[in-house]
Specification:
With about 375 residues, the protein is an alpha+beta fold. It has a domain of about 150 residues: Helix Hairpins (Orthogonal Bundle), CATH 1.10.287. Helices cover about 55% and strands about 5% of the residues. Strands 1-6-2-3-4-5 form a 6-stranded antiparallel beta sheet. A hairpin with an 8-residue loop joins strand 4 and strand 5. Helix 2 runs antiparallel to helix 4, helix 3 packs antiparallel against helix 4 and helix 6 crosses helix 7.
């Protein structure tokens, strides 16, 4: 994202900390000035843009993964085609040599006449056997030539098709990149239009709204008392905690920056269990787990479209890369509307003894909402 947007988001955080506009703890926004939109309206508009940007980011990430696989397939086909063409050249050379040998050894007589005219019929019969063997070898060479030609033609068609698919994916990736940038430019324009007082009120209103959502979520009894992670889950949690403070960057998979699913995917890759790259694929392909059975290392997925994801830390908290302008941080689980949870290691055995990683100072600082909309309901998981 641009440095201008980072400065704007940073200004919002500083303004909120300075408490230029006092807001009650019940998340009730102050009345708007005449002719100005309310804080709730501004928050709704801002988070709508963030949500659109993250949807576009997930599309970009998914296309990037498809393109990566298609590149590998194109490279494989290109290597196979090169080998097939080498084999074809060898088959053609062998066929040409056989043709020259047949022309040079041809006497114009049939094998039957050569046998009748031979001085030594037994030798002629043995010679005929050798000739038959050579004929069979020639037939095999011709057959291999035909097979090599067909294989080379088939591989050439597959390679052209794979290249066309690769080019189409590259165009789609470019379109998704432009879409993300366009959405983030809209966020920049909205933030740039706000005063310091509006930015402070916006940040404080969002913060109070998250606190209320977390309070309701915990009071619902949805979460369990806590289950220790598996050894792999522990490694994933500790990896994610080591990334605290690194910036959010859409499409990033580390190590310098992350987007939401880039963080969760890398955490589990370092734990030894590769998982899909995008939050939507993580939600679609990993086993679902009820929230009352959550354990550290599980992934908490947000919004009906599964466009945001975080890694469960325990005690109702998650590690996440929230949104553009924010950093990887520890947040309340209800910072965004929860869709459900998935488990990358469903067959793993929980540790008998578990000591959570120590959080560094400032782990909870900064905005929590990835795409939180004021007043949005927190759904329970299946």
């Amino acid at each position: 994202m641009s440095g201008r947007m980072l400065r704007l988001v940073g200004a919002a955080t500083v303004a909120a900390q300075a408490a230029l506009v006092p807001v009650s703890a019940t998340a009730v926004p102050p009345p708007p000035q005449p002719g100005q939109p309310s804080v709730a309206t501004l928050l709704t508009d801002l988070q709508r843009l963030y949500r659109q940007a993250e949807r576009a980011t997930e599309t970009y990430n998914a296309t990037a993964e498809q393109l990566k696989k298609q590149r590998a397939e194109s490279d494989r086909l290109r290597a196979d085609l090169a080998r097939a063409r080498l084999a074809l050249r060898g088959s053609r050379a062998a066929a040409g040599q056989l043709a020259r040998q047949q022309y040079q050894s041809s006497s114009g007589l049939s094998p039957y006449l050569r046998l009748l005219l031979a001085r030594d019929p037994q030798h002629a019969l043995e010679e005929g056997h050798v000739i038959g063997q050579l004929a069979r070898e020639r037939a095999g060479t011709v057959s291999r030539l035909a097979g090599s030609e067909k294989k080379a033609d088939d591989l050439a068609r597959e390679a052209r098709k794979a290249l066309d698919t690769r080019l189409a994916l590259a165009r789609r990736q470019q379109q998704a990149r432009d879409d993300v940038r366009g959405r983030l430019h809209e966020v920049e324009r909205l933030l740039a239009s706000l005063s310091a007082a509006q930015l402070a009120a916006l940040a404080e209103f969002e913060k109070n709204g998250i606190a209320e959502a977390q309070k309701r979520f915990l009071a619902s009894g949805t979460l369990s008392a806590g289950t220790p992670p598996t050894q792999e889950g522990d490694r994933a949690v500790r990896y994610a905690v080591r990334q605290l403070g690194k910036p959010y960057q859409w499409g990033a998979e580390g190590p310098a920056a992350y987007d939401c699913s880039g963080l969760t995917a890398q955490a589990w890759r370092h734990a030894g269990t590769p998982i899909p790259r995008t939050s939507q694929e993580q939600w679609a392909r990993l086993p679902h787990v009820p929230l009352n059975r959550l354990r550290p290392g599980d992934l908490v997925v947000y919004f009906p479209e599964a466009t945001h994801v975080a890694l469960y830390l325990g005690d109702g908290m998650v590690v996440q890369a929230p949104r553009p302008g924010a950093k990887v941080k520890v947040s309340p689980i209800a910072a965004n509307p929860v869709l459900g949870a998935v488990r990358p290691d469903p067959g793993g055995e929980p540790l008998r003894r578990y000591t959570p990683p120590k959080l560094p100072a400032g782990a909870l600082d900064g905005p929590d909402a990835g795409l939180y909309a004021a007043g949005a309901p927190v759904t329970s998981a299946r």
